[in-house]
Fold this sequence. Notes:
Blueprint: H1 8-19, H2 28-44, E1 48-54, H3 56-59, E2 69-75, H4 83-96, E3 102-103, E4 108-112, E5 115-122
Amino acid sequence: MLPMPMTGDQYLLGILARETVDNGPNSPVRGVQTLLLPMIREWANGMLFAMHPSGSFMKGTAITTGTDVDLFISLSETTPETLKDVYDKLFNRLTEKNFSPTRQNVSINIKAFGYSIDSLANTPK
Length: 125
C-alpha cells in the first residue's frame, strides 16, 4: 500500500520543524550574546543598560538557513555621545578586536562564532 500523500500544511510544518532555530534560554544563539557581553561592557564604559537578542530570533520566526543574530545594545540615557559617535565607536572596537565588521544602514555586522551577527546600539535620546 502506498503512503498517503502529504498535504501542503503537513509539508510546510515539516520544513518549519526542520529549520526552526532554538530560541530557548540555553540556545547556542544566546551563547553568542554571552561571548560578546564582556567586550560590549568594556566598550560601553559603564553606560550599558542592556543587551539582548531581537528580530526574528525573539519573534520565533528565525530559520537555520538564512538567519542572522540581531543583538540590540541599549545604552544609558546619560550616554554623552551622539548616536553617530556610538555607532562609530562600536565599529572601531569591533575592528580592534579583529571581528572585521561591516557597516550597514543602522547596524554593524560581524561574522563570529559561526553566526552572522547584526549589532544595533541605541540610546534613549
